[in-house]
Amino acid sequence: MEVAGSVALVTGAASGIGEGIAQRLAAEGAAIVVADIDESLGKRLAARLPSAVFAGCDVTDDSQLQAAVNLARSHFGRLDILINNAGGAPDPQYPEAPVEHWSRVLDLNLRSVIRAVQLALPLLSLRGGAVINIASIAGIGQAPHSAPAYAAAKAGVVRFTSSLAFLAERNRVRVNAICPDWVDTPSSRRNREGMTKAELAGLPPILTPAEVAAMAVTLINDESAVGRTTVMVGGTQPWTLT
């Protein structure tokens, strides 16, 4: 599908990967619903984009997700692209974390993705559309991970994405995912500040939000991309998870 002339809803758009994707889609000619829990940063980004509106949105709240979808319809008259980017792995981590905390991690990183697709689907289906779910390399492979609930949620995003391949034929909505490794975002910078020199030396080159955004545009444009998860690791060519 063409990005130019489309309307995109980007969750977690105020900073990091979400900001990079919102900026790239806007540069390609899309109108943007900047959905984020951070009102100050979100409104600032929306003001900088050629055609954008801010939606205050905690993606773990169904009513706020619905309001963001409704805003796309009321302000721009349509919705063509959904970018499920909001997420995170705040401390403390499982198993020390209380159940309320790690349950919210699951809600933030997995349930919100499932719910956002469900709420946006009626609008996306009207003209045909595209969904990009931002997963993480934490969700693939067999290695231990320091944030188990986050890793499990991102694994769920990958499988959820592939499970929705049938929507391409039934609803004309293609769902794909991106699994990036380390990306230069405010949260990853904070994580790297706590690493030793040896740990930092073992990291691959850090991806930029712009690189992830470019891949999102590629998947939106590629009509053959259905239920696909693209893995991105700095310094290597992206590959499709099979």
The best one-word shape is: globular
Q: What pattern of helices and strands is seen along the backbone? A: EHEHEHEHEHHEHHHEE
The helix content is: 40-55%
Mean pLDDT: 96
Walk across the major sheet and give the strand order. 3-2-1-4-5-6-7-8
Q: Can you summarize the main beta sheet?
A: 8 strands, mixed
> In DSSP terms, counting alpha (H) and pi (I) runs of 4 or more, how many helices?
9
| Fourth-level CATH superfamily | NAD(P)-binding Rossmann-like Domain
CATH topology: Rossmann fold
Query: End-to-end distance, in Å?
Result: 24 Å
CATH architectural designation: 3-Layer(aba) Sandwich
CATH class categorisation: Alpha Beta
| Integer tally of domains | 1
What structural class do the secondary elements suggest?
Answer: alpha/beta
Number of strands: 8
Strand content: 15-25%
Our Rg estimate from Cα atoms comes to: 17 Å
Which stretches are low in confidence, meaning pLDDT under 50 for 5 or more residues running? none
Can you walk me through this structure?
It is a single chain. The chain is built from nine helices and eight strands. It is α/β, with parallel strands linked by helices. It has one domain (7-240): NAD(P)-binding Rossmann-like Domain (Rossmann fold), CATH 3.40.50.720. Strands 3-2-1-4-5-6-7-8 form an eight-stranded mixed β-sheet, with helices on both faces. α3 runs parallel beside α4 and α4 (99-127) runs parallel beside α5 (148-163). The longest helix has 29 residues, at 99-127. The two termini are 24 Å apart. The model has no long low-confidence stretch (mean pLDDT 96).
